[in-house]
Amino acid sequence: MNPFPPEDDMTVWIATSTQTRKVQHMRNNPNVTLYYSNHAQATGYVAITGHAELIDDRAEMIKRKRAYWDQAFPGFKNLVLIKVTPERLDVIDYKAGALNDPQTWRSPSVEFKKGS
Description:
It is a single chain. The protein is an alpha+beta fold. It has a single domain (12-107), classed as Roll (Pnp Oxidase, Chain A). The chain is built from three helices and five strands, in the order βαββααββ. Strands 1, 2, 3, 4 and 5 form a five-stranded antiparallel β-sheet that branches.
């Protein structure tokens, strides 16, 4: 997966093929988690839990177009955008001391209000 950087409200957009298993799963259950980590440096992780919406709007695709799409999705064929609206963000940052609670094992997190 090659997500776009999060927007100001932490919405994340991702492009994928309509033929993927993940698209079928999201049609049945739009609840998703995006997990970001650099395992080579072992600095921690960020996990965004939220609601996925499949977007097939050509104007959105043109707005977000990446060069490799010309080969991967000629004429936008089989392309769909995934818009992930965050509900919760969890973070572990070992260097900054943002660690899980030793009793509950919960990571530091931010809850997003719907519609904000």
